[in-house]
Amino acid sequence: MAKFQTNVAGVTYYEIDYRSIDNKSKVQLIPDPHNKHDKNAIKVIITGKQVGHIKRDLSSTLCEEIKRGSKVSARVRAVVGGGPGKNYGIVLDIIVDDGYTAVRTNNHLGNSVKNSSEEIKVVKSNLPDFSKYHSN
């Protein structure tokens, strides 16, 4: 699972009521393959209205993850800017869940631990100690 932040691109091209957007607003990321500027474009929809796109340098990577079957989701982190002579902006938290790096904390197999190589290792905590039966 990967989590990161990004600004929504193109918000100045849309009429947005920024006062209605907060961290509880529903966010949808919709691939936009017919976009004339970018075949990997991803629309950002907040509470049913388009507010912009994912930045071009990130959208191709997210499209690849979607094609691989990863779950890509987002939530509003903040609405920034505004005021005299300043544009508003929307910051999103993006979550990419590929289904492989989620770590189980406790289950019937024991505790699982993720090491630095992204492998998941299950540590059995309730096995009997067989070392006393080992002969040299």
Description:
- The chain has one helix and nine strands, in the order E-E-E-E-H-E-E-E-E-E.
- The protein has 136 residues and is mostly beta strands.
- A hairpin with a 6-residue loop joins strand 5 (71-81) and strand 6 (88-97).
- The longest helix has 13 residues, at 56-68.
- It is globular and about 45 Å long.
Mean pLDDT: 80
The total count of strands amounts to: 9
Beginning-to-end CA distance, first to last residue = 45 Å
Tally of separate helices: 1
Radius of gyration: 22 Å
* Shape field: globular
DSSP strand (E) fraction?
35-45%
Uncertain runs with pLDDT below 50, 5 residues or more? 103-110, 112-128
Helix content: under 10%
As laid out across the biggest beta sheet, the strand order is 1-6-5
For this entry, give a set of tags.
about 140 residues; globular; mainly beta; 3-stranded antiparallel sheet; 1 helix; about 10% helix
Topology:
Elements: E1 2-7, E2 27-31, E3 42-46, E4 49-53, H1 56-68, E5 71-81, E6 88-97, E7 106-107, E8 110-114, E9 120-123
Antiparallel strand pairs: 1-6, 2-3, 3-4, 5-6, 7-8, 8-9
In short:
This protein has one helix spanning 56-68, and strands spanning 2-7, 27-31, 42-46, 49-53, 71-81, 88-97, 106-107, 110-114, 120-123. It is mostly beta strands.
